Amino acid sequence: MVLLHVLFEHAAGYALFAVREVEEIGALLPQVEESAQTLGTFLNVVKLAAFAPFRSAQSALENMNAVSEGLLHEDLRLLLETSMPAKKKKALLGVADAKLGAAILEELGYQCQTGGVVAELLRGIRLHFHALVKGLTAQSASKAQLGLGHSYSRARVKFNVNRVDNMIIQSISLLDQLDKDINTFSMRVREWYGYHFPELIRIVPENSMYCRVAKFIGNRRELSEESLEGLEEIVMDGAKAQAILDASRSSMGMDISPLDLINIESFSSRVISLSEYRRGLQEYLRSKMSQVAPSLSALIGEVVGARLISHAGSLTNLAKYPASTVQILGAEKALFRALKTRGNTPKYGLIFHSTFIGRAAAKNKGRISRYLANKCTLASRIDCFSEVPTSVFGDKLREQVEERLAFYETGEPPRKNLDVMKEAVAEAGEVVAEVKRKQEKKEKKRKKREKRRLEALAAVAAQEEQEENSVPEPEVRAGGGRGWGWWGWGWGWGWWGWGWWGMGMVGMGTAPAPAPPDPVAPAGGRRGAPEEEEEEAAAGGGGD
């Protein structure tokens, strides 16, 4: 006979089910397949042997992480040691994960089985789990699964807001679009204002500066020596400012109306604001690249590196590309055209905009592009998979490209890659240690601030509780009268006697007096009650 137990991992806890004893495990398969859909028949096959619920959501997350990695958690070890049969040779444990079964066999010595009838049993247990465990409803089981799923996914994703390459992709796309728009708008301002002052185009060829000068001058006939200082601040050249002033006096341009001038100045202001926004966007792109891909930025530059990431779709995709793909990334049309016509394939794509390609001789452009693509691939992989981003490797890779470029020109042999990487690893280790030290220091400060905040909250709560306890409560006296002393005659109900007046203990404040026992009437009398006394007093009668 085989003693088969099935381990089921749920978001609510571990469950161990005992299966009906059979001579062969395979004989259970037809019966399990037929009864898995119906709870009544499935209960004839399995029975809950033990259930160990998780103590908290954090405990559930730790156990699920251990199960997913094929490790035996202490909670699971305790359940198996206390619930499995003592004779390990006859016991057989069915598990869903083979790695977890191997860990159980290695540490506890229980034979584990996966697949076949175990898979069918687990399917039935998963279907009827909320009915097999007492006190667990389908709604609570669903909530536990949802909460654990969110926690597990969040821990696996390890989202870091400082390393989001989507922002880089959008920034470089917007930067390229702004370049096109600013160029188009600047040409429109040149043509528009050129009718009034055509000589200004030759003196100020730069688009953004031309718009600033055109807005500052306005009507060229109003330009004078007094405006020379402000004009010099814009063009940052005294000789050029004087040339603009001289050209305005002898210009061949047409006169312009005030309304046209207002529109030109308004449009120039828009172009200037777009140029300023572009500079801010470029600084933002530089800062994001230093956070997300510092090595790639140090090697090839922020703009070219951002274009590579944007064309690949993400930094992870770029890291997966081989060097041959990175070399021609951005030249797909030329590549397919060359393959179709059986011509020469392109030597470079987006990396052509790097300064290394432009500095290389014509015969060495293909060589340096292959070498640069190789180093870009290494830099992107370092940036993608390193825990602490640093530009040390990018600086070293850039030095290697410089040495290779010098080797092609002068023949001086470069350093070996092994020596350069050893230096980079040593420097990166120091940088990472410093970063971790700063992070630990920040974490300690944060914990201290949190501790002080909790202590302040506790002190405020204790003070409020003390103030509540210090409020004086009304004093309860033995009598129900009013007065200004501890003893005296007071107006109220008396305990002894049958009239309106009585002697009682009085004090400051009032409180309901406890009901006195019924007095025993004297001989020949009767036992009185307060209601009866009140009725007799109202009737005008005195005491007996």
From TrEMBL:
The keyword Nucleus applies. The keyword Nucleus applies. Keywords: Nucleus, Ribosome biogenesis. Its main location: nucleus. Coiled coil: none annotated. It is found in: Nucleus, Nucleolus. One of its GO terms (cellular component) is box C/D methylation guide snoRNP complex. One of its GO terms (biological process) is ribosome biogenesis. Involved in the early to middle stages of 60S ribosomal subunit biogenesis. Required for the biogenesis of box C/D snoRNAs such U3, U8 and U14 snoRNAs. Part of the small subunit (SSU) processome, first precursor of the small eukaryotic ribosomal subunit. During the assembly of the SSU processome in the nucleolus, many ribosome biogenesis factors, an RNA chaperone and ribosomal proteins associate with the nascent pre-rRNA and work in concert to generate RNA folding, modifications, rearrangements and cleavage as well as targeted degradation of pre-ribosomal RNA by the RNA exosome. It comes from Amazona collaria (yellow-billed parrot). Part of a large pre-ribosomal ribonucleoprotein (RNP) complex, that consists of at least 62 ribosomal proteins, 45 nonribosomal proteins and both pre-rRNA and mature rRNA species. Within this complex directly interacts with TCOF1 in an RNA-independent manner. Core component of box C/D small nucleolar ribonucleoprotein (snoRNP) particles; the core proteins SNU13, NOP56, NOP58 and FBL or FBLL1 assemble stepwise onto the snoRNA. Interacts with NOP1 and NOP58. Interacts with NUFIP1, RUVBL1 and RUVBL2; RUVBL1:RUVBL2 seem to bridge the association of NOP56 with NUFIP1. One of its GO terms (molecular function) is snoRNA binding. Residues 460-479, 509-544 are annotated as: Disordered. InterPro entries: Nop56/Nop58, NOP58/56_N, Nop_C, Nop_dom, Nop_dom_sf, NOSIC. Belongs to the NOP5/NOP56 family. This is Nucleolar protein 56. Gene3D superfamilies: 1.10.287.4070, Nop domain (1.10.246.90). Residues 292-410 form the Nop domain.
